[in-house]
Amino acid sequence: MDTNIEQQVLSARKKKVLAYILAGLVLLAATALVLRKLFSATLKRSEITTALVQRGDIENTINASGEVVPEFEEVISSPIAASIQKVVMDAGKTIKAGQSILTLDKSAAATEYQKLKFQLDSKQNDIRKMRLELDKSFYDIKSNNDIKQLRINSLKAAVENAKRLHSAGGGTREDIEQAELDLKVAQLEKKQLENEILSKQQTMRLQIREVELAASIQQSELNELSRKLRQADIQAGRSGVVTWVNKNIGATIQPGEVIARIADLSSFKVKGTIADNFIDQLKNGMTAIIRINEMQVRGKVTNIYPAIQNGTVSFDILPDQKNSKLFRPNLKTDVFLITAKRSNVLRISNGQTFKGLESEYIFVLKDGIAERRLVKTGLSNFDFVELKDQVKAGDTVITSDMSEYRNTRNIHIQP
């Protein structure tokens, strides 16, 4: 009986020991797997992309977007309120300077022109009448002045006669005083008449001046309307291609409303936009790279617009090759603005492994082992990243995304 109990106890102890050993082996295996994962991993060569570290020049760029537009575009607007009568040139047609694009119904503007002309003629007639009245007033003042002067001369003679008679004892003092009084009254009447006519002349001159000013304003309005009527024969101001025309026959057009666009498709520029947080780095004259598919055209920033719209700043780029065959109207492009440049630096092709940080973990491949290294980066652009340390020219670096292995020191690369 006691022997059976001892055997059972021993058997239980053995099972317990075996369980501990098995658990230890499992834990050891798991630890080994974790350590292997931590310090080493395995990748196939086909699963990664690599690039060689090389010496060369590098330009630091900031990303923007752009749209190709004609460098010169004539925007034609209606000079008058009218309706579209006929479209002569459709969009896409080549046009020469002076050729007609469309015809406007000018009847309403022509009627307004005749009305203004009639009003101007009336004012000019008023001016002529007032000038005649003014001339008549000059004649009246001269005639009346002559008459008054003759009477004054006569009264002066009467005063002298009264004095001589009084001296000879044939007249009285009262006769002299009466003659002198009549003379003074005549002189005052002459002066009053002169003042009245002078005042009337000044008033008439002011009235004439007012009418002349009104007529001058009306003449300017008439000249402007005449000019607009001539412009209403909608013609191309320069040779090019009609890019858009309002084809709504009979539609009412208001003054200033755009009715056609003509572009010179032999010369282009790029209208760029960039996030406003880069506005301090955006400068007139800075070099820009315009990327179309895999091709590049360089140019200069020529104009920066002050307004910020929807968090973006707009600017113009004048390409070095304004007539490049790559350009098409309204073509969307990538734009890279060069903010700095260095020569003879260690650089590598840009890839997903680079996150735009000052220090980056990279994997340098040698003899089938990819070793993790922490490197300092410098300038960067769409094509290259500058590496400042931990590498040398000729090193092979994995450029594909290695975020999954950021805690792994070494990776075995299988063929």
Automatic annotation (TrEMBL):
Coiled coil region boundaries: 176-235
UniProt-annotated location(s): Cell envelope
Keyword Transmembrane: yes
TM segment ranges: 17-35
Keywords, alphabetical: Coiled coil, Membrane, Transmembrane, Transmembrane helix
GO cellular component: a single term: cell envelope
InterPro entries documented for this protein: UPF0194_transport
The keyword Phosphoprotein is assigned to this record: no
Official protein name in the record: HlyD family secretion protein
Organism, as annotated: Pedobacter westerhofensis
